[in-house]
Specification:
It is built from no helices and 11 strands. The radius of gyration is 14 Å and the shape is globular. By secondary structure, the chain is mostly beta strands. Strands 2, 4, 5, 6, 9, 10 and 11 form a 7-stranded mixed β-sheet that branches. The chain has a 4-stranded antiparallel β-sheet with strand order 1-3-8-7, with no helix packed on it. Helices cover about 0% and strands about 55% of the residues. A hairpin with a 2-residue loop joins β9 and β10.
């Protein structure tokens, strides 16, 4: 079955950096685009960054553009989110996501999430 396991969250300082990892299993990782979302307390889930199956194309939310970098290593079935110049408003639970399409629709798979807290 599809499994996504995030790691790397924790306490970060304003202006500092954290690197999140998501290890995938149970599907052909190198054939699927991957996504990072986040959800702050009391708010909806927000798409932060995406990367195509090859890694050639990436997209970012305006709120993180120029500060976060998404990348992937298809040999390791892993997608990363490098977070630099952290701000307190980056505090959230971060989730890895993959969407599998079928003839009748799609299924979203999520990891368990990793907490990122930015505070001095």
């Amino acid at each position: 079955q599809v499994q996504l396991v995030e790691s790397g969250g924790g306490l970060g300082q304003p202006g500092g950096s954290l690197r999140l990892s998501c290890v995938a299993s149970g599907f052909a990782f190198s054939s699927f685009g991957m996504y990072w979302y986040r959800q702050a307390h009391g708010k909806g889930r927000e798409l932060v960054a995406s990367i195509t199956f090859s890694g050639r194309v990436t997209n970012y939310a305006d709120s993180v553009k120029g500060r976060f970098t998404i990348s992937r290593d298809n040999a390791k079935n892993t997608v990363y989110l490098q977070m630099d110049s952290l701000k307190p408003e980056d505090t959230a639970v971060y989730y890895c996501n993959v969407r599998h399409y079928s003839g009748s629709g799609y299924v979203d798979y999520w990891g368990q999430g990793t907490q990122v807290t930015v505070s001095s």
